[in-house]
Each structure stands twice: as C-alpha cells, then as structure tokens.
Write a structure and sequence with these properties.
Structural class: alpha+beta
Shape: elongated
Radius of gyration: 20 Å
Oligomer: single chain
CATH architecture of the largest domain: 3-Layer(aba) Sandwich
Order of helices and strands: HEHHEEHHHEEEHEEEHEE
Largest sheet: 8 strands, mixed
CATH topology of the largest domain: Trna Endonuclease, Chain: A, domain 1
Number of helices: 8
Number of domains: 2
C-alpha cells in the first residue's frame, strides 16, 4: 500500500470530524515525521484538510474525499469504510440536496400497508421527491446484491408515495398534488453498474452532479407519479 494511503487511513481513524494532534497522526501511521508532515502540507494545499498550531482539522466532506483517494490508491475497502459512519453519508447527502434547493428529512419513518417503513433521506423540490438509501457497501457488490438493494428501495419509495397525503408525515411534499418519487441508492465508491432497471446507483462524490442533471433526465429513470398512480419503468 502507498504511504499516502496509510496516512489517510490514520487520519480517518483518529479524526472523527474533530481536531486531532499532528503527533497522534504520526504515531498512528507509524511513519517518519517528515513523511507525514509533507503529506499533510500537500493535502492542505489541495483543500483536503487544515493544519494549524499542531492540530489537523478535517470536515465531513474532506474525510469522504480522503477515503475515496485512499481507495483509489489501493487501500483495503473494508478497512477504510470501517472508519466512516452512517451519519457522514447522510450529512453529505443532505448538504448536497439542500444546495440544490431541496427540503430534506433524514431517517423518515412512516406506516403503510400494515407495516413500518424507513427511508434514510428524503429531499423535496417540486415536483421531485428524491428517496435515498445510503449503502455502506464493502468491496464486492455482486449483481444479485445490487438488484436486491434497488428493489427494496423501489418498494420503500412506492410505499411512501402511497402513504401520502398523511398529516403524521412532516415532509414538504406531503401536501403536493403532483410529485415524482425517485428511488436512489447512494454508495461510497462506484458500483459495477450505474443503474438497476432505471434505479440509479450514485457514488456520493458524484451526488451533486447527479442532482444537477436530475430535472433533465428524470424521464429516463424509474419513478412513481403521485397524481396518476403511474409507475414509470425504463425498458
């Protein structure tokens, strides 16, 4: 493994989105001080972290970027992902959605069809309702696993659209007369397939680009139309 990957993993392990001593990073990386310091300065110039007064500060977005870089350099996927929490995925996704004008709810729970459901993130921007499932996948994402995850998210999205209007569900789209509910899978790294039957599988660092293009490409995706009770499928 490259030296930079080892330092990156050390940062992910000890930082946890709070300032951490540079000396602690050096100790964890088990590398010469000058090597670690050189990398930290390089990454500061690249906007991946901030070094000051003997401390390193790393934001949630910067942690994700460092994690992706480590994976691209050959770091073990399970080792890297073990230092990233569910909330980091949700935080980045929520920020991206809000930056594109969506009102966001996380960990949305509701009842429909005699059972309880939960969707990790729901973003509402008329007429679109983006229903996101955050996947903390390991290295091997087999087609069968991707298919199952996509189909489960489709079922959650359909149940959510069928549950509205519902005064108990406090989301911006609850009272809309016209809405398109789009199921989305969000992952740390690109999967082998970008879609499963029209359901997009989006790497988290490409989420902003996906959201920017979504209003123009939604007709090519799978979605549920609330007004017409129509299920749209790409052949």
């Amino acid at each position: 493994m490259e030296v930079s990957s080892e330092v990156t993993i050390s940062l992910l392990k000890v930082s946890k989105c709070k300032p951490v001593l540079v000396e602690l990073v050096k100790k964890e990386a088990k590398l010469p001080s000058e090597v670690v310091e050189r990398l930290l300065q390089k990454w500061q110039h690249e906007g991946l972290l901030y070094v000051h007064d003997g401390f390193v500060e790393i934001s949630t977005l910067q942690r994700l970027k460092l994690a992706v870089r480590a994976l691209q350099l050959g770091a073990d996927y399970e080792r890297v992902s073990s230092f990233l929490g569910w909330k980091e995925f949700e935080s980045i996704a929520a920020v991206a959605l809000e930056a594109h004008g969506y009102n966001v709810e996380t960990n949305l729970r509701f009842r429909q069809g005699g059972r309880r459901w939960e969707i990790d993130i729901v973003g509402c921007r008329r007429p679109l309702v983006v229903c996101v499932d955050c996947k903390h996948w390991r290295r091997n994402i087999y087609p069968s696993k991707l298919k199952r995850a996509a189909e489960e998210q489709v079922r959650r999205t359909l149940a959510f659209s069928d549950s509205l209007p519902n005064p108990a569900v406090r989301v911006d789209c609850a009272s809309w007369n016209d809405a398109r509910f789009v199921p989305v899978l969000l992952s740390l790294m690109p999967a082998r397939f970008k879609f499963h039957n029209g359901t997009p599988v989006v790497p988290i660092l490409q989420l902003r680009d996906f959201l920017a293009q979504l209003p123009l490409c939604v007709d090519s995706l799978k979605y549920f139309d609330k007004m017409q009770a129509h299920f749209k499928t790409v052949s």
